[in-house]
Amino acid sequence: MGLLSARQRMGAAALILAASTVLSRLMGLVRDKIISWQFGAGGEADMYFAAFVVPDIINYLLAGGFMSITIIPLLTRRFQEDADDAWRFFSCVFCWMATAATLLTLAGMAGAGYLARLVAPGFTPEQWQRLSFFMRIILPAQIFFLCGACITALLFMRRQFRVPALAPLIYNGAIIILGLALPALAHTTPARAVLPASFLARMDGMTGYCVGVTLGAALGTFVVPLLVAARQELRLSLIWRHALMGKFLLTALPLMLGQTVIMLDEQFLRVFGSLVGDGAVSLLNYARRITQVPVGLVGQAAAVASYPFLVSLLARGERERFDATLRTALAGSIGLIIPCALCMAATAWPVLGVIFQGGRFGTAETLATLPLTRIMLAATPFWILYMVLVRAYYAHGDTLTPAITGTIMTLCCLPCYYWWAVPRGAWAIAVLSGISVACYVLWLTAIWCRRQGAGALTGLTGFALRVTLASLPATAGAWYCAEKGMQNLSLSPILTACVSLILGGTVFVVLFVPLAVRFAPEVLQPVLRRLRRE
Q1: What percent of the chain has pLDDT above 90?
Q2: Which of 197, 421, 453, 475 has the fewest CB atoms within 10 Å, measured from its CB?
Q3: Where are the alpha helices (DSSP H) in 356-425?
Q4: Sign of CA dihedral 309, 311, 317, 323
């Protein structure tokens, strides 16, 4: 009964985060649709996407994306022992995080001109100047991301998922609104009468989207969680020393110093894409956006929701339940991602037509993005496996193994990107991205089995194979129908893409469901149980 209750709570948490992720991903696609419509692939869009390289690396250096992983175990135990001292420890972490984020942000803004040349070596001097301008606008967002990560970790520890689930929605909403509104406001009569022409000229293009990034980060990831936490007796004070800081740093330092292929994958696409030619950064970015949708929908919710429960089970010494919970998260994620990825690969042409094609993003750009999308989709099961498995490592307090193995893989990949992938073009960069992620995840899996045993992974390989075999006929049917629809329907481009997508998706579902019931019934069991209850 206890295990069932834990699974139900984990399922509820995953449902909240999944709903947020669905809406966030949809808003992200709307945002990218607007950007592709306005700017297409190349030029201004390339510079906008490249402007995130340095801010993202600052986030990685301070382990902002892993704040909940590093602080939740320590904070949970401390609250159980001494609540007053737990608040002092939390305040100490927050003060140091805010200070480090501010200093690194100011350093990045001061050196933006040099950093622009470093992260986009294939750009022109004019593009470097514009890129540095974008970077200076986006960099302050990291202060809010990193400080907000501390507050969000506190909310996660208390099993409060609703407010953190709002953060990406506010963030994406601000980008869309400011991206559309700022250039329009800059061209109003009052603005032209008051502001210098040189300043107004800078407000054109992607500037509004950059402003939206910082404003959205401030509101969504910091202000709103802070207000909610403040109503729940949040206690913050200026504290610079605490006995647990040493242990916290030992846990966090591997995440700060270990720059893994997972963390840097998107940055590699941007940096090395700039060496391929105009538009490559944008095309790779658009393809990655599509392939990360199923990863976010399936993996992120399961991984984030399962982590507090994994930590709690280990703290109580319940190893068998730990393995059962981990296997449930892994099997559920893998069972969904494989058919989802194959369906998206089969219908990738109409998917790109619906989401991106239009305005300055024409048929040529759609066809150029198509093979990149299919290549990247092949690696999505490994992304899912990583997102769940790495949290099992972190629940054990082991941040060192993923960091060291990931850093070694990164160092091995760098020369391959430069000397093998770049000369061959964007498709080779996409291939190497998938290979590096797959090799890294398989390495982590082998280490886990050797150290912790294969209990949590028992039967997953056979299950994944059965799901794949059940999906292949559906994939072939969906691919044929989607391709024929795109080639032969004489409708407008958007209607052709919509009809082809619906046709391909329907064929996939019709062929997949009976095969899944026969060969991999575990995939459909959650849905069938819900239908029986209703």
Answers
A1: 33
A2: 197
A3: 363-377, 380-395, 400-416, 422-424
A4: positive
